[in-house]
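Journal club prep, shared notes

We agreed each person brings one worked example of a sequence with its structure written out as tokens. Mine is Isoquinoline 1-oxidoreductase subunit alpha. I'm keeping it raw so we can talk through how to read the token line rather than staring at a rendered picture. Sequence first:
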Amino acid sequence: MRYTLKINGETKTVDAEPGTPLLWVIRDDLKMTGTKFGCGVASCGACTVHLDREPVRSCQTYIDDIEGAEITTIEAMQDDKIGAAVQQAWMELDVVQCGYCQSGQIMSAVGLLRDTPKPTADEVDSYMWGNACRCATYQRIRAAVLRASEIMEA
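Then the structure, token by token:
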């Protein structure tokens, strides 16, 4: 079946089977590999993208359910004011270790800062809770989200 998607500000047409997870459309059909496959059951956060500016797990978001929605992936974050602040903070604080979870972490952090521009450490921990990091860089992730908030304020 043919689907028309608005992704990262561009209109794209893809052929996909009904019920195909958005993750596979992004990665396999559109060749945008920044969004990662982690667990496939929406538990790890590696596949997080924004759907109408809200973070969602693309492994459990189906192509037939998103008609007319605006999809944003990690590839567009440098063009987003909050995304750029988060990426700057990530680099300043050397958050990344293996890096596999980081696109999902960044997409979730942007969602948090869009809703709560000046979060507390507890708010960061609560919001980011569903994002798994095998390298356990959670303290650096928290610090980077708080630093991004400062960058946005400047």
